[in-house]
Amino acid sequence: MIIFTPLSEPYRVVPKGKGKGKKAQKGEVEHVKALAYLAEVDDIRILIDCGAPESFQFNENGGDLDDKLREIAPTIDLVLLCHSSMAHLGLYAYAKARFGLTAPCYTTLPVATMGRLTVLESIQSIRAENDLDPSSSKTTDENEQSQEDTAEQKPHWCIATADEVNDAFEQIITLRYLQPTHLDGRCAGLTLTAYSAGHTLGGAVWKLRSPSSGTLLIALDWNHFRERHIDGTALVASSGMSVRSGDGDEDSSNAIADAIRRPDLLITSMARFNYKNTQRRKRDTALLDMIHNTIRAGNTVLIPVDAASRLLELLVLLDQHWAYAYPHVRFPLCLVSQTGREMLERARTLMEWMTGEWARKGQNTASAEAGVEEEEGEARKKPRNNRSNNGAQAPSSPLDFKFLRIFSSLQAMDEALSPSDAKVVLAWPPSLTHGPARKLVARVAASEKDVIVLTGKGEPNSLTRQIYDEWEKRQDATAKPGLGNQGEPIQGNCKLKIEIHDKVPLQGEELEAHNEAIRAANERAAQQRALLARSTRRIEADDNVSNGEGSSDDESDEEEEDMLEEATGEEAKNRGQGMEADEGQGGPEISFDIYLKGNASRANNFVESSGERTVGRYKTGIRFRTFPVVERKKRIDGYGETLDLRQWLHRRKQLEALGGEEIEAQSAEDRRVQFQKQQAQKAEEEEKKRKEREPPTKFVVENVNVHLKCKLLFVEMDGLGDSQALRTIIPQLEPRRVIFVESNSAEQRQALEDAMGKILRRTAKDIYMPIMGEKIEIGESTANFTVNLGEDIMGSVRFSSFQDYDVTLLRAKVNFRTESSIPMLEPVQAATIKEEGDENADVNAEPRDDVIALDDEQENERGNRKELQPTTLFIGDLKLSSLKQTLSRTQRPAIPSEFIGQGTLVCGASAFKANATEDDVVTVRKENQGEIVIEGNASRNFYKIRDAVYGLHAQVTGQ
Q: Residues annotated as region Disordered (predicted)?
């Protein structure tokens, strides 16, 4: 049984006539696209995606997705991530660290790599602009959670730390395309396989097989067109994709499409059901023409972009244009991103996940670089005068981006380039909710000649959405997005109120007050450390005295050593004054150039008037030393010299700090844990040094009123399939049931239901379109049991392979044994004989009165009754096209075949000759469901064709 529940709401349009001041009805407010779905397959709870808005703020536009995840996270058994965008995995690290999400997570290597960089870019830019104290985020203790309505709560951040993000993504299990993975633990019995989805690098379409619920195909966001750096999705054979399996072999797209065809349940998106994409040529021409004309005139172009998922496609397009139009790099192409440099380095290592051509280029580049390094190594061994100036050069990679300049911040870009220089700037984030892109809008908006190019609509109520709405309302009816035509640029003419958060250095009185507070805090900390050290030394001294022989000399040595270390500060001023400095004062202790013990500085003389010595423990007077050195004495007890165990413990701590645990580690897991500890310690030290180098700063908020005068252009670069693809590809998959998610409105759901109902009426039994929180139950509840097969059954049973399983038909009896909790299957005859047979039965026993004897007629009827013979079951769905390929490829000689009608295949060479005879002609016809008819004369071809039909099924013979 499958239960599917959407946990988040897609984009919703606010009805016209309802402004901000009016409260919209439920279901009419436009929510941020934070994707998360819960699927229960055979009592196994699967979380599909774990997205978040770009601002990480909830209970404003983000809904209450964080509250729902907090409730269900501890019960999740499996997590699947489809893409590397914020809408698919933005909240995963926070849920892993704060919500108790401990389930294993599966995705592809590029999604895990690029997703980590995307989340890091977002949290670093937010933390650089806002003071995120613990009170700004929700506490992780569920007992402290408020039970009030989430709509009445103030918006809050759900932002993880950098360490939490790194730890969460390091634990992700990465898979390759076409790699079947048999899950274990709570998910035992499920088989997981990833296929290419297009749209983003490493994007996955998940195929999940269950022994009782069938095949589940999850295809949320996909693109059937081949782009510049990635291939199309595996959902369609005509996408021209070339997917590499785990062994590096190339499989045909037809074989991949057949593997995911006819799923029991398909989950896909309907957000672009009424959307028609613009042709790629028109879209690229509009973008490049606008950039070319703007920078030629000496102005600036701002393009808000994401951190990794769709950035590569745009960079490839611009880099190719720069290489063609500006080979001498007259105009800077800038990327403002803290993780941009690392993103490109990681992308160069993932060339095999890109197009087939790029994958081959990546392999050639890697081998060429290895050859260049080898030649350079040999050249170093030769004399300098024998070296050639024309050394071997490795071929360039498509991801070298020679014309791209990467800056970690706006300050770095301003130091390298003048604000008045003509340039193209790509900055994070695409919705302009924070980060460098939001600050650049305030600079660019006031200039009539500068341009802002939007590649997406942005999140609801974001700055990008406001600019997009301004551009859309001034477009012609035929040029609006979604109709297949590219819109025209406009001259902006509206007012925007932008709230800019920033971190600025302290100056003047604020800086002096901050430094004074730091000095006071350091002094208090030093005093606390001194008091703690003094108390520790006294305790250790008391322990040494109590453990020793109790001699007064030992006690005196310990006390004198303590006093030596305390002789600092004001006491040094009185050094050299002798006893006269303190004579008759009775004030605080002072220090001399010789050592004075205790309160000796306050003593006026050694002997009182009575003639007795009154100072010292035993009134022996005060003892002075001419040089302040303490001689440590070895302590000896009845067993010999006493050892101080604290010295050995301290030495062990030093070894651990120097990596001693790595030497003692005996397994790879121990070494990995130790390496992670060292990396975390190193990162913490670097962060501490960075904070020490940074000047004192404070967070400020500035409200800027901007008159938007610059030019505006929208160029859709989402890279998703449109309505035509949805109507064409979904029927080709022939799903038995379909769930459409991300519905925008009730009208769209009704239109899609009517349209897809007509298209899928032959294949799909049911079509579902759930809204947020609505549960869809599919199938019946089944139970799985674990049993052992007896030796008698294992010796006679024969298994047949069917997809990922081995199946057989058994007629057995369940036998429960006391020595094992797992029941045993035994043959029915043996079990019956064992029950009925009784060695101690009396053969000569008289017949019982309560047993009815059979008459002769009943005996004869019982003897003539035939026993049920074993039957053969054929499991599978025969495709006549597959049979046609089998007859032409596997049979020697090949048996030609052709379709003569719907569901009829004529086979045999003589069927296509002029003098055709019916001797070798065989007809294979599919009539009713599960019924196949093979007609023909008894000939060699007939049996070959019959065996070929049998071979395309799993044959299960009963006992």
A: 130-154, 361-396, 534-591, 666-695, 834-866
**Whether the Cβ atoms of residue 5 and residue 773 lie closer than 8 Å to each other:** yes
Q: Could you tell me which residues come within 8 angstroms of residue 687 by beta carbon, excluding any fewer than 6 positions away?
A: none
β strands within 252-306, DSSP E? 265-269, 300-304
Q: In what order do the strands lie in the sheet with 812-815?
A: 788-789, 824-827, 812-815
Q: Which amino acid is at 811?
A: R
The pLDDT value given to residue 679: 67
pLDDT score recorded for residue 793: 82
In the CATH hierarchy, which fold is given to the domain comprising 281-342+355-371+397-506+705-712? Rossmann fold (3.40.50)
Lowest mean pLDDT among 24-38, 346-360, 549-563, 792-806: 549-563
Class of the CATH domain delimited by 2-12+31-142+153-275+719-778:
alpha beta
pLDDT tens, 89-111? 999 999 999 999 999 999 999 99
Residues with Cβ within 8 Å of residue 667, at least 6 apart in sequence? none
Residue 204 burial (C-beta neighbours within 10 Å; 0-12, 13-18, 19+) = buried
* Ranges of each domain in the chain: 2-12+31-142+153-275+719-778, 281-342+355-371+397-506+705-712, 509-566, 571-611, 786-799+813-837, 873-957
DSSP secondary structure code for residue 518 in this structure: H
Residue 601 pLDDT class (50, 70, 90 cuts): very low
Q: Are 880 and 905 in contact (CB under 8 A)?
A: yes
Do β-strands 37-41 and 44-48 pair in parallel, antiparallel, or remain unpaired? antiparallel
Enter the tokens of residue 934. 């093979």
Buried b (16+ CB within 10 A) or exposed e, 371-394: eeeeeeeeeeeeeeeeeeeeeeee
CB distance 727 to 224 below 8 Å: no
What integer pLDDT is reported at residue 872 of this predicted model?
A: 78
286: left (phi over 0), alpha (psi -120 to 50) or beta: alpha
Virtual torsion, Cα 161, 162, 168, 173, nearest 10 deg: 160
**Are the beta carbons of 180 and 138 closer than 8 angstroms?**
no
pLDDT reported for residue 358: 83
* Opening angle at CA 501, ends 500 and 502, nearest 5: 115
Minimal CA–CA distance to 886: which of 876, 898, 895, 875? 895
User: Which of 187, 235, 233 is CA-nearest to residue 213?
Assistant: 187
Strands 451-454 and 711-714: parallel
Helix (H) or strand (E) holding 41: strand 37-41
Neighbouring-strand partners of residue 637: 640
Please enumerate in sequence order all residues whose Cβ is within 8 A of that of 76, keeping only pairs 6 or more positions apart, or say none: 45, 46, 47, 101, 103
Q: Give strand pairing partners of 607.
A: 613
CB 635 within 8 A of CB 544: yes
pLDDT, tens only, 875-917: 887 888 888 888 888 777 888 888 887 778 888 866 566 555 5
Contacts by 518-521, CB closer than 8 A, 24 or more apart: none
512: left (phi over 0), alpha (psi -120 to 50) or beta: alpha
pLDDT in tens, 124-169: 999 999 988 644 444 444 444 444 443 345 678 899 999 999 999 9
Looking at the DSSP bridge assignments, the partners of residue 616 are none
Token pair of 450, please? Answer: 């500068």
DSSP characters for 399-427? T--TTEEEESSHHHHHHHS-TTS-EEEEE
C-alpha to C-alpha distance for 235 and 231, rounded to whole angstroms: 12
Contact between 731 and 738 (Cβ < 8 Å): no
- Report the C-alpha gap between 799 and 220 in whole angstroms: 36
Residue 338 pLDDT > 80: yes
